[in-house]
């Protein structure tokens, strides 16, 4: 680490999630004095939560496919990833002593699947670099030459660093810290913000009492979801309120759009994507005979109990006596969606600070020296490691631009 002109400069990072912490690391490595302010009593709570189900850090697919996961027009995400790629993220983890591996789906995980060990090593590194972490410190507003902070249940105080990076997150799982309370304060200052919407979220389904009592918490494996000519293979999870899971999240932007237009919709699920309709019909040509339909479908097609029950949930049982109709329904099982689950249950939120409100350095046009990074910016991606990658990459990008800004100032 070399001392530089910027070593006399100090930067406040507000929000200790992955975007803020990686920026802190990069700035400290460049010789900048960094203080990270976090509203919660501990840091990176959502990152730790993400690790509970298997921390999907990034994805191993080729870079063009990778970039295509971000919506059209989100060219800024591409700039961030150009400077800190999925390979760079894996190398960063390895540098902290945590190897990563590629799962069968191409997703990348830390060797133990969890976030805890990686976070521990990361915080140790930040400590060695001299980064100061201040918890229970909430940013509450802008001040003439700095920002206003408030210690939990304490008085407000002003800080005047040479630059500020906001990395306050989106709006899902608010109890983890990212509660979107920054939005009205930013808007009041003329920063344009696209309203937050739940993304990578489940959908409400009006299940019968029998179905929800019998099958909540059960997975639907080896299925494919069909919408607008798109077919998304994967898995879904049946819940009390509806349906969620990776295949659902991958289509959540299209489903959300259709629901906001039509109020409700029918999602078609292919319960046997490995067979086409002709193959399926061949398998079913003998008919159930004296067997119940349920045991017939289980033995002939290896459908699970929940898949057979799903088939019955929104269809007319009279259709099951004709094998061609039954085959068609198995390939296009209708499920009625009536709305999005609440934002609080979402993996991420779409919306946030508009690209038009920041310059190419991720500095707010309204405030010189105030930068932004992470999920609080207006971009969207499915699950698969694309969320964390964009948060990390934007943090690295912003840190580089802040370093340049400090050099220009000195
Ligand atoms: C259940 C779950 C599982 C997930 N799994 C994955 C996964 O496997 N892979 C993946 O890519 N993504 C996953 N995600 C998404 C990913 O965790 C987020 O996209 C990512 O954490 C966002 O990073 P961030 O740094 O922008 O914001 P956050 O991680 O939300 O951090 C923002 C921080 O700012 C703090 N803060 C907010 N307001 C203030 C304030 N006023 N003053 C001070 N501090 C403040 C918050 O307390 C928080 O610590 C998951 C999310 C959830 C909820």
Structure described in brief:
Helix content is 36%, strand content 23%. It is α+β, with helices and mostly antiparallel strands and 410 residues long. The longest helix has 24 residues, at 386-409.
Structure description:
The chain has helices at 18-29, 45-52, 63-67, 75-83, 86-95, 116-128, 182-188, 209-215, 246-250, 252-262, 277-284, 293-301, 305-313, 323-331, 386-409; strands spanning 10-14, 33-37, 58-59, 100-102, 107-110, 132-134, 137-142, 147-151, 156-159, 163-166, 193-199, 203-204, 219-227, 230-238, 242-244, 265-270, 333-337, 339-340, 348-353, 370-372. The protein is α+β, with helices and mostly antiparallel strands and 410 residues long. The chain has two domains: 5-198 and 348-409, FAD/NAD(P)-binding domain (3-Layer(bba) Sandwich), CATH 3.50.50; 203-340, no CATH class. Helix 4 (75-83) packs across helix 15 (386-409) and helix 11 (277-284) packs across helix 14 (323-331). The radius of gyration is 24 Å and the shape is elongated. Residues 1-6 have low confidence and may be disordered. The protein binds flavin-adenine dinucleotide. Flavin-adenine dinucleotide binds at residues 14-20, 37-40, 45-47, 49-50, 53, 55-56, 138-139, 167-169, 172-173, 177-178, 182, 347-348, 374-375, 385, 387-388, 391.
């Amino acid at each position: 680490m070399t001392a530089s002109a910027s070593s006399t400069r100090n930067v406040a990072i507000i929000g200790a999630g992955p975007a803020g912490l990686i920026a802190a690391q990069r700035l400290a490595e460049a010789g900048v004095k960094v203080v990270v302010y976090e509203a919660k009593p501990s840091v990176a709570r959502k990152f730790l939560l993400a690790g509970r189900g298997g921390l999907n850090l990034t994805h191993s697919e080729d870079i063009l496919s990778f970039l295509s996961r971000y919506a059209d027009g989100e060219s800024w995400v591409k700039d961030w990833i150009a400077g800190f790629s999925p390979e760079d993220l894996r190398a960063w983890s390895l540098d902290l002593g945590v190897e990563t591996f590629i799962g069968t789906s191409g997703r990348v995980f830390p060797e133990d699947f969890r976030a805890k060990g990686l976070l521990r090593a990361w915080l140790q590194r930040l400590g060695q670099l001299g980064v100061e972490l201040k918890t229970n410190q909430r940013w509450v507003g802008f001040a003439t030459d700095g920002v206003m902070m408030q210690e939990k249940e304490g008085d407000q105080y002003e800080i005047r660093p040479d630059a500020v990076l906001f990395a306050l997150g989106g709006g899902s799982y608010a109890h983890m810290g990212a509660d979107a309370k920054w939005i009205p304060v930013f808007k009041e200052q003329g920063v344009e913000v696209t309203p937050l919407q739940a993304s990578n979220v489940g959908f409400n389904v009006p299940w019968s009492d029998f179905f929800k009592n019998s099958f909540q918490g059960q997975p639907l494996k080896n299925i494919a979801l069909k919408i607008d000519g798109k077919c998304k293979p994967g898995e879904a999870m049946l819940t009390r309120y509806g349906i969620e899971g990776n295949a659902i999240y991958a289509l959540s932007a299209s489903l959300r759009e259709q629901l906001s237009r039509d109020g409700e919709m029918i999602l078609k699920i292919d319960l046997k994507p490995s067979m086409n309709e002709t193959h399926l019909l061949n398998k079913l040509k003998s008919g159930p005979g004296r067997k119940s339909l349920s045991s017939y479908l289980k033995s002939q097609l290896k459908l699970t109990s929940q898949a057979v029950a799903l088939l019955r949930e929104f269809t007319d049982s009279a259709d099951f006596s004709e094998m061609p109709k039954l085959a068609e329904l198995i390939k296009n099982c209708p499920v009625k969606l009536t709305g999005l689950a609440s934002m609080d249950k979402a993996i991420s939120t779409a919306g946030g600070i508009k690209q038009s409100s920041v310059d190419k350095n991720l500095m707010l046009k309204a405030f010189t020296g105030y930068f932004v990074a992470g999920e609080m910016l207006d971009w969207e991606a499915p699950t698969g490691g694309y969320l964390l990658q964009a948060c990390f990459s934007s943090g690295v990008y912003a840190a580089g631009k802040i370093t340049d800004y400090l050099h220009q100032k000195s």
